[in-house]
Amino acid sequence: MELIRKLVMALEDAPTGYAPDDLNIEGYAPDQVGYHAHLMIDAGLATGNDVTHMGSTSPEAMLTSLTWAGHEFAEAARDETRWKKAMGIVEEKGGSVTLSVLTQLLTALMRNALGLP
Q1: Do both 35 and 15 map to the same domain?
Q2: Residues 92-109: pLDDT tens digits?
Q3: pLDDT tens, 26-73?
Q4: Please, what is the end-to-end C-alpha distance for the chain in angstroms?
Q5: Domain boundaries, position 101
């Protein structure tokens, strides 16, 4: 989930709205980034193209831009304190979570911070 968050934030920070050509995330190998880009497209967080080929070690994609859902995830996950709190809850309850549940948790924490039911 950390790499997905970093990719979403990198795309949102792009000044043109398009993914930079050199989308590298420090601490992650290119094949990890490519696979998580593939997952982001599949989850509806981003648009892009499948670039998997016979020599690929896993499915991989090149991202183009965020979708509306990607921007909503970025907004929910942007705050470092909220992100750490959500990931702490996940760890405390079992250590893994789906993207949709994590998004709901982040949104609930955001709503709570705003005093909304």
Answers
A1: yes
A2: 998 889 999 999 999 999
A3: 999 999 999 999 999 999 999 999 999 999 999 999 999 999 999 999
A4: 26
A5: 76-113
Nearest to 6 by CA among 110, 83, 109: 83
Which tokens go with 48? 């892009």
Give the whole-angstrom CA distance, residue 93 versus residue 27.
27
d(CA 32, CA 30): 5
Q: One-letter amino acid identity for 68?
A: W
47 lies in the same domain as 83: no
- With CA atoms as reference, report the closest residue to 105 among 94, 115, 116, 90: 90
Q: Do both 41 and 80 map to the same domain?
A: no
pTM to 2 decimals? 0.91
Give domain status of residue 21, yes or no: yes
- Does 59 share its domain with 80? no
Non-local CB neighbours of 11 within 8 Å, separated by 6+ positions: 19, 23, 46, 63, 65, 66, 70, 74
